[in-house]
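Thread: assembly with ligand

MN 10:42: here's the input set. Chains plus the small molecule as SMILES. Want everything predicted jointly, not piecewise.
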Amino acid sequence: MQQPKLSARGISLWFGEKQVLKDIDIGFQDRQITALIGPSGCGKSTLLRCFNRMHDRTPGVRLSGHCYLDQEDIYAKSVFVAAIRRRIGMVFQKANPFAKSIYENINYGLKINGVQENQRHELIVQSLKESFLWDEVQHELHKPAAQLSGGQQQRLCIARAVALRPEVILMDEPCSALDPLSTAKIEELIKNLKADYTIVIVTHNMQQAQRIADNTVFMYMGRIIEADTTPNIFNNATNELTSSYVHGKFG
Amino acid sequence: MKRKLLEYLEWGSLLMSTTAVCFFLVVILWDLASKGAGSLSWDFVSRFPENGMTSGGILPAIIGTVMLTVITAITAAPFGICCAIYLHEYAPDTPVTRLIRASIRNLAGVPSVIFGLFGLACFVQALHLGTSLLSAGLTLGLLSLPYIIVTSEEALHRVPVSIREGAWALGATHFEMVRDIVVPSALPGIITGIILAVSRAAGETAPILFTGAAYYINNPSFSLDQEFMALPYHLYMLSTQHQSVDLVRPLAYSTALVLIIVVLLLNLTAFYIRYKSSKDHATA
Ligand SMILES: Nc1ncnc2c1ncn2[C@@H]1O[C@H](COP(=O)(O)OP(=O)(O)OP(=O)(O)O)[C@@H](O)[C@H]1O
Ligand SMILES: [Mg+2]
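BT 11:07: finished. Tokens for the full assembly:
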């Protein structure tokens, strides 16, 4: 197998006294979609947030181990966190647009990352098209983002992340607050993004994982129990916990 | 049956307290308006006092209060906002930070006359600013500072973690996140807090008593290093210190009415800002 694009090596994480991640070892292949599944509270979001150092400013967090983007240690002292986050985008469970216009929501990331002014417009339009939002908003780009529907807001957040042309996109249950129609749109979008990006997506929806993911990782109580191709996880799981979870026996 | 009775009792007592509060508010305003409206006229707010304050207007006191308010806002707001941003966005959560925060809250409860004394000792005497508009403005600035810090910190606190994380995830540094996302979102709340703090300061008498307010000034220059007239102090003098208190009583009421209107206008501005921003930020 080729070198993974993004990987965790021996990651353990504590919130105060409580250990939430236990010696996590996992790699994500370039231009593949990997689904992270597991019962609520098993540490999926916590693991995902390790990859773009979202725990950095949370008080009481202790982390050991390493994360690598290509060969580069994400937690190395010499690393500029903002630069890593530009390369590893994130979409959150609840859409979190800024209190700015639709256009400015995307423009902001480009601006702070030093993209030339004359290239921004092009990128904004392109990312809106890639997020299937363009047709709906092209005539009202300067309207406040808060006036969009929940599904549109989430697609705007994806557009915002995609506009920076990151290498990896982390998604934490991006569809959990959306109706089936918006969910279908976003799944379509994720499948398209696969051509250019490495995608890691947390989901509680087993059907969704099977629809979109190439690989699936099953987590339980802070550990990775099994990681394999999606068909294998759902049909020929080697671990009993995995097969009973994916068949809805617990969780 | 018993629970229903209790509910009526609860509802009744709440309603009664609300009515009582509103009743006194209305009585006070009515009293002021009915006794003050008689001598309130365009001349009253646009002319200088005449004949030992028994006739003429209160223009210098209005100008004095407005200038004082502006100085208060200019001196207190930048420090207050910066302090709140530091405390809320940068300071680590240590015992020292918590002590500082508690001290600021306590400072907000210190009687205003103490600020007046401090202003006298610090600005008037130690810094040789004399009894002047500047000394009084700085004193009121100090008085407003704790309120501004507390309300600004609360406004910053209302900015959800989720949009902060959204900015980080796009590669914003902590400073960029604070400057571009947090402060703009919190700004309406911060401005509201500043206006309310300053409008409260505008009505204060004690802090300006020793630091620069004067009873009557012939040919006021309205410069920073001179004494000045101010509405609350003018009101205090008219109602207690004037040689013919009864004669100027209607003028005192009109002065009070003008002061209330000035403060009310400031408060309305604050409410308007809050109303507007709550409409702009309503999420779908
Ligand atoms: N900031 C925090 N402080 C303390 N404990 C936390 C914090 N965030 C998460 N935890 C704990 O860490 C554990 C893992 O949480 P995490 O959010 O990663 O779970 P999850 O797998 O994403 O669950 P869900 O599917 O419900 O989103 C939980 O037990 C949670 O209580
Ligand atoms: Mg989660």
